[in-house]
Amino acid sequence: MVVSRRLRFPNRNEHKRARKMMGIQDIRDVVSSLFIMLNKETFVLFRIEFLVVLVTVLFLVMFIIDVFRRHIRNIFMKTMFSILDAISDSIVLYLLGAMQTAKFKNHLFPVWALVLVSFRYNVDFISGYGVHDRHGRRYMEWRNVVKLLGSAFLILWRGSRFTVPLWSLLALQILRSWYRFCEHGLALRSIWHGTSSEVISEYMRAGPHTRNWKPEDCNPENMEGYKYLVLGETNQGIRLKKPRYVLYIHTAQSVKQAERGFSSLVTLDKIWGCRRHLLHPDNKEGNDPKDLCLAFALSRLLRCRLEDVTLQEEIFCINRKLVKTKIIEEQDTNRAFRVMELQLSFVNDYFNTHYPMVFWSGYLSLFSNLLLSVVTFGVVCWLAVDIRKVYKPPKDDRAHVVHGLNVDMIITWVFMFFMLFKEIWEMVSYLVSDWTRLLLVCSYAQWKEEHTRDRRMEGAISSFFKSRITSKHWHGLIDQYVFLESYDDIPRCWNVMHQISTGMVPKKGDGAKLRSAISVPECIKPTILKKLRASLEKLNTSNNLHQPDNTNRNQEEPTIRSGILLPKVVRSLSQRKQYNWACFDLPTCSHVILVWHIATSLCEIKFARDHGVDLSKHGFLSSLSSYFTGCCSSKPYLVDVDVDEMTKEKKVNGKLPDKLKEMYVTANSLSRYCAYLLVSKPDLIPDSFYVPNMVLQETVTRARDDILKKCDSLQSRYDKLMEVAEKAIQDGDDILKEDVVRLGAKLGKELIDQESKEECWEILSEVWAELLVHIAPTWNAEAHKQCLESGGEFITYIWALLWHCGIEKSKLWPVEDVYGNDVENMS
């Protein structure tokens, strides 16, 4: 009997289940082995070493960013600093815990912990916080003390072979944190810093009951009578004088000192009246020290505005003469702007850096900070020598050795080097700062004359003025925005980053893409000073005093702030009244900026076409091309007007005259800069609240969805706008009811058709310079103060100059009667 056997084939489903189960089991085994491996001593040490190196690199990057913070304006860089600050802080806390809970010994752990905490403490030794410290960052000093105490606990728990230098360094760092915290309080209460504005407000009060100074004695040519405080009032007796109880500086001691030719109270007139060699009127080398003192005195007045301390009208009268003589009418344009640059630099130092704390009592506080740095330097060297002489890893120590090299020792030596370098850099930063130069000049000027020339003192002052870490106090850039290139931009990716970063990356609106920033063209500065000069020459103080418009208001009610208004005049259009509507008949400053900006862009496109520039590329291809070419060379305008520094050969086939080139550059750069202010810094222009953003978004929507829809190149956009402008001109009287795009197209076509090439760019360059002067005066001083932290804006220079002249508004822009509106609403 034959028994048949049936062959049984494997079940495919069973194989799949088996493979799946084996795969899951393998993953579990891998994860388990990974956790077991990571808990091994070797990998724990490697993890600590890796994080120590990583956080050191982060601290180094933050240190570099902090040193050049005023020159870094990129939003990504600023956001990166904030992110690195949060990440590095968390890593340091984790490392302290990891070193504490490690199951093996390493005598270098306490060294690493202490040095890391010291790095974290000193990474922003300059720009941590200012005198007023609105964000309470000074309390980070106590947070740093807590971390230092954590390091101390690690030293006690783990033990170390370098106990004495470690404890010395720990005690020194706690002392420095305590000193910096106390130093802030001292600076806040000092007459030279924290209470300076109140003292100056009372000191500068003119009248028959004060002897501090007399406005009628002021002569800006030789600075006689300009008793603006510079240094030394801390050492004087400040009293209240009857019957009006006005503040005055008791000068009895100063009079006795003056009889000997010495005065501890330094004012501007004493700086200019000093007959010693370096500051003698015949010595041109004394201009830099004099400019430094002038800038500091003006910065103290400007701080009064930024701290909402009211000054008398008499101050602005004599201040106007001073600013006009020494800055606006200065023949050397670079010197004039250097004084303004120094002034804003001192203001920025006061609000955003540690310098006022370091110099709160002059040489004494400077010496104290330098002494702490020197002692820290010595203790770190002591610790480094002990490590070099004593340290050899004991048998029970876990050390990372690769090819005979102790990685832990290499990390430690890198730490020591960075620690020493940081202390040297901090001392050098203090010594070559403008504050040290100011102290030296004031010390030199305390003696009015000299019997023998002090060449050593003069050489020291000159060397300090020649030595500096960075050659610029300001980045020297102005941002640019071109509406016809950006209106169709929708920043989806950017706004996704805004949401992911929970607001750390600022949100962008549609059509707000900026061009790369450019250096301020040299032709702009004299043009601006010329317009300021013209405005002040015809400024009638009596006719332009700002008075409340509502006559029904109680006359005894105190006004919040009085000032002078720039007249409603655009002098460059006095002979071309057909364009007046674009300045005087539009509802807001934002409308004026956009209309003239679009017109300027159309004139530039026409100018580029006349010079053979191809503008027919698709928008994406054009952007891509400009990006790659921008990596190799700078081309900020459609027509390349750069001049080669070596050959001085003009481009555009040599057909562009110097005068036309200057007008072309001035008009385009200022047009794009004012448009940038409208888009990115609306608080700096006279319009209030959400007006700039509303006007911009309405214009972007009208251009993208209606007028310029499907126009994908500058050439097609130009042709379309010329067509729209022709129709708008035919409409005649109804033109002011049109939108901003059509108004800009109409103005641009009129300029192109009615003016020659030279006349067109002359009008645009002159109008934009005047518009910038009218845009600058604004009530929002807080916005300018916030911009100073990142280096400031070019318009802040003009705003500060106008404020010193008592000008805070322009009649060119309509002013709403808020008081009257409130009364109507109540009724």
TrEMBL record:
Which InterPro entries did the record assign?
DUF4220, DUF594
Domain DUF4220, chain residue ranges per copy = 86-485
Q: Do you know which Pfam families this protein is assigned to?
A: DUF4220, DUF594
Protein name as catalogued: DUF4220 domain-containing protein
Biological source species: Triticum urartu (Red wild einkorn)
